[in-house]
Structure formats: structure tokens, C-alpha cells
Amino acid sequence: MAPATREALEQPALLTLDELTERVDMSVRNVRFYTSKGLVPPPLRQGRSGYYSADHIARLELVRALQDHGFTLSAIKGYLDRIPGDATPSDIALHLSLLAPLTADRDVDVAEGLAALGVAPEAAAAVAEIYARHGQEVAEELSEIVRTHVWPAVRDAGGSVEDLHHLVRRLKPLTIAGLVTAYEQAMDASADSYERRGAGPRP
């Protein structure tokens, strides 16, 4: 008999619906709702009973994480549709790690903070939109690098998804510091350019 793979050894036994809800700390109603919306596959049938696997656990945990990040149901569906159908639970858990790089330890209301400084509401909202839009772009690009370059190296070295998750958590403060440095350098360059234009001859 062929030896069991690490993936197989990590997978729990099949769970009943009640065992699943206890495992993922989610109500029966929510599990059934997400199943009806196609966010998680239907239970595995054995006779008249339905059972749930590690794949169901991983997908439900990802759904909850995406909701916590503000994704709508349609956005969650679109996100999950891009995950290959043959993805293993570890592959799905990888996406949980990829949600972490730019997630701050606490929420910051940019518009509210700017308004407190006397910035007009329209300008404050525009600045907040810029931060959100470019922050999402940076997160997506970093996630792609982690998925295609960092994770394969960790995996080939014998590391697990939890090892990757730990690495990504350590990456977060470095990422934030790098963004702040890049922003300050860009602002300094912009200010220098503005001053040079202002000091030049008028047309």
C-alpha cells in the first residue's frame, strides 16, 4: 500500500453538519446559505446522510475571512470561482495567508481623520478612495508574488501553510514601512518638482 501523503494525514475524518458547525464556529443556517449560493460545495453523500470534509472547512473559513475583509457575497463568489476545482485544503488555506499582508491591526477611518484636520469632506473622501484603491492594487500584486514565488520556495523546503502564514505576518510591518518610505520619497520628489516649477520664469 502506498504511503499516505502529508495532505492526507492532515485532513480530519468526515464530519456531520453539527460537527462542522462546531469546528468552524458557524451556524447551520449560514452553512446551508453559503452552500445554496455555491460558495461551498454540497455535502458528500453516504446513503441518506451528508458529510463534510477538510475542503468544506477550508472554504468556509475563507468565506468568513473574505467577509471580514468587507467582500460582498458576489465578490466572494467571484474570488472563489478563480480557485481551481482540484485545489487541496492547503491550497485554499494559502489564500487565507494572502489576505494578511496589508491588513492593519486596527481599522483607520482616513476620511474621518482628515476631516478632524479641517480637510473638506469631498477632499477627505477623495483621499480615502485613493488610499483604498492603491492599497488594494498593492495587496493583489504582493499576493501574486507570495503565491507564485514565496509559497513554492517555502513548500519545496518542507514548510507548511502555517509556516507561510507566520512569514506573511512578519512581512506586514515591513510592507507598511516600505509603503511609508516610498510615499515620503514620492512626496519629496513632487515637492521639489513643484518648487522648481514655481521658481522658474513665468510664461
SSE string, helix = H, strand = E? HHHEEHHHHHH
- Estimate the global geometry from the Cα principal axes: elongated
How many strands, what sense, and barrel or not for the largest sheet?
A: 2 strands, antiparallel
In the predicted model, the low-confidence regions spanning at least 5 consecutive residues are 1-11, 101-106
Portion of residues in helices? 55-70%
What portion of residues belong to β-strands? under 5%
Q: What's the domain count?
A: 2
Structural class: mainly alpha
How many strands appear in the DSSP assignment? 2
Tell me the radius of gyration. Answer: 23 Å
Give the N-terminus to C-terminus distance in angstroms.
85 Å
- Mean pLDDT over the residues: 77
Q: How would you write the strand order of the largest sheet?
A: 1-2
- Helical stretch tally: 9
Care to describe what's here?
The protein is an all-alpha fold and 203 residues long. It folds into two domains: 12-87, Multidrug-efflux Transporter Regulator, Chain: A, Domain 2, CATH 1.10.1660.10; 100-203, no CATH class. It contains nine helices and two strands, in the order αααββαααααα. A two-stranded antiparallel ribbon has the order 1-2. Helix 6 (89-98) packs parallel to helix 9 (161-199). It starts with 5 loop residues before the first helix and ends with a helix. Mean pLDDT is 77; it is low at 1-11 and 101-106.
Please render the helix and strand layout as text:
Blueprint: H1 6-10, H2 17-24, H3 28-36, E1 44-46, E2 49-51, H4 54-68, H5 73-81, H6 89-98, H7 110-116, H8 121-156, H9 161-199
Antiparallel strand pairs: 1-2
